[in-house]
Amino acid sequence: MTKNEIADVLAEIGTLLELKGENPFKTRAYQAGARALEAIEDDELATLIRDERLKSVKGIGDALAQKIGELHATGKLEFFEKLKASIEPGLIEMLEVPGLGPKKIRALNEKLGLVSLVELSAACADGRVAALDGFGDKSQQKILEGIRNRESYGRRHLWWDAHEIAVPIVAGLRALPQVTRAEAAGSLRRGLETVGDLDFIVAATEVAPVVEWFVTQSGVKEVTARGETKASVRFESGLQADLRLVPTDQFAFALHHFTGSKDHNVQMRQRALAHGLSLSEWGLVPAEGEGTAKEKAGGGAHGVHAGDETALFAALGLAFIPPELREGLGEIEAAEAGELPRLIETGDLRGAFHNHTTASDGRNTLAEMTAAAEALGWAYLGIADHSKSSVQAKGLSEQRLAAQVAEIRAFNASGRFKTHLFAGTECDILPDGRLDYDDGVLASLDYVVASVHSAFTQLADDMTARIIRAIEHPRTTMLGHITGRLLLRREGYAVNITKVIDAAIANRVIIELNASPWRLDLDWRHWRKAAARGLVCAINPDAHETAGLSHVQAGVNAARKGWLTRENVLNTRSLDGVRRWLGERR
Ligand code: DGT
Ligand code: CA
Ligand code: CA
Ligand code: ZN
Asked: Which of 370, 336, 319, 286 is nearest to 543 (CA)?
């Protein structure tokens, strides 16, 4: 395990101990341990463990050092597993409800005897929660909403999480000797921000061993259906997956059908009919005559042969349509006219602007973040830690910001890294739309990301005016996470997005596409039109640790769904190109 993963486990232990009502000193020791780890670099941790010097680190005692060693070596911790098993699962679930921490959950458990979300929601409904000390009407309402959101979102999963499960399965399927082709289809392949279930399409010479392999994968919790050429399973996270096996000559048709979307498929079938053909998951055959499409495709005599999707599209007079565009939003017309955009790719990115370090709420130091960007081959990395009003996120005072800028300039001068650092800030947009630093301070920076982190409940008109005021500030380079939404967890705040986009275009301010898998905000559904009107995008990982830089891939998915090309995105430009752009803005 990496030190950040170990720190996560320690912090979770702290939370669970608090939930159990353990001695606060013990609880705090784990939280302190997690923080202490965050200040150590990864290779330093390995050395400390090897030399048995971990205990010498402030905040890490004997017991903690032993546990960190166990996690580092094995990725598991018996103490942690036993602790989890000793707590009512419903109480652990309550931790996912916004506004509920371990202390409040304990109070609910001790005073009302609640052990599950169902009981909690009933207690909210009849007002028992509001009557408790430290709760009240407002927090009861918030808990109830949180539980409802959780239910309605509960059936879907973040693209990122689904992707992590799907990748090794596709690789494993392809490695089987019986398998000739294997792909993940469905919303995952289309790069949708959330995924309902996984859909694997496989062509194989023999089916039984493939089905057997699929249902015995590690992480499969339940086999929900099993047939000769099909199987469905459920993973630990609740994510379900369908496997479909097809003959090799049907693979392209099945892959296209199960990639969807439904709207795209409906339009494709209409187009096929206009060509006198019938398109289905089994093939493309003449529309008139006897028999089902399946029989005809199986018969092969009249069916159109397509070895891959490119040939399938070509048979209908279309250029290959990238899966991300298959939402039934004009992609077929564009493919017919030869006007499909050349979509941006992850490899086009040469850096990113919205990233945090340990100076604010990040978990890796400036040097670690820079080294990670260098390892990705990035020409530049923008550092945008929080500003002073974001107290909980350790926002930087003017003095600390000045020190960071000096450190960044020194890094650049030293030639220690190939990656150039830009000095920026993620500056709070205060409730009235002013920025959190004075103009003089902002002028000392290379760029400014302006974001809303407070007063989320403002009325839409006020929020819109607030954000537009920030956009009109001459030092604002880009707007961070425009709605503040957290996918599957929290709706964005109320804001008139069209007006904000208008203001951004008029002021040559970028709107970021926040690539955090939880945000993906500004939503892809707005990008095509906005970019056509001149809005410039930056795909920003909002990384809070080195591993977070790779989230740009989720942002690129969303950008592709928004029909964006590399020309639309600032961080595809060279270092000089970005310097010029920032220079012209000043
Ligand atoms: P999801 O799983 O909810 O995130 O979304 P998808 O798009 O993966 O949907 P899913 O898993 O129900 O089905 C995969 C694809 O199969 C879907 O995108 C299109 C195709 N498909 C499934 N059912 C139908 C249908 O009733 N009509 C049409 N035209 N296509 C369908
Ligand atoms: Ca699906
Ligand atoms: Ca499915
Ligand atoms: Zn932010």
From this structure: 370
**DSSP type of residue 99:** T
Instruction: Give backbone dihedrals phi and psi of 355, rounded to 5 degrees, phi first.
Output: -140, 145
Whole-number average pLDDT of the chain: 94
pLDDT of residue 196: 96
Fold of 3-153: DNA polymerase; domain 1 (1.10.150)
Ligand 1 pocket check for 195: Cβ under 6 Å? yes
257-340: which CATH topology? Beta Polymerase; domain 3 (3.30.210)
Relative to the CA of 242, which ligand 1 atom is closest?
11
**Ligand 1 pocket: which of 156, 158, 194, 199 to mutate (most atoms <8 Å of CB)?**
199
Pairing type for strands 420-423 and 380-383 reads parallel
State the span(s) of the chain assigned CATH 3.30.210.10: 257-340
Q: What distance in Å separates the CA atoms of residue 13 and residue 77, rounded to the nearest whole number?
A: 11
Tens digit of pLDDT for each residue in 196-255?
A: 999 999 999 999 999 999 999 988 989 999 999 999 999 988 899 999 999 999 999 999
Stretch(es) of the chain classified as CATH 3.20.20.140: 346-585
The CATH superfamily holding the domain 346-585 is Metal-dependent hydrolases (3.20.20.140)
337 lines ligand 1 (CB under 6 A): no
Q: What is the pTM of this model?
A: 0.82
Decide if pLDDT at 299 tops 50.
Answer: no
Domain with CATH 3.30.460.10 in the chain: 155-246
- Note the pLDDT tens digit of each residue in 154-190: 679 999 999 999 999 999 999 999 999 999 999 999 9
* Count of Cβ atoms closer than 10 Å to residue 148 Cβ: 11
* Mean pLDDT along residues 360-373: 97
- 262 in ligand 1 pocket by Cβ < 6 Å? yes
List every span in the chain annotated with CATH 1.10.150.110: 3-153
Residue with CA closest to ligand 1 atom 26: 262
Atom of ligand 1 nearest to the CA of 186: 8
CA distances from 302 to 248, 286, 292, 295 (A): 17, 7, 12, 11
Does domain 155-246 correspond to CATH entry 3.65.10.10?
A: no
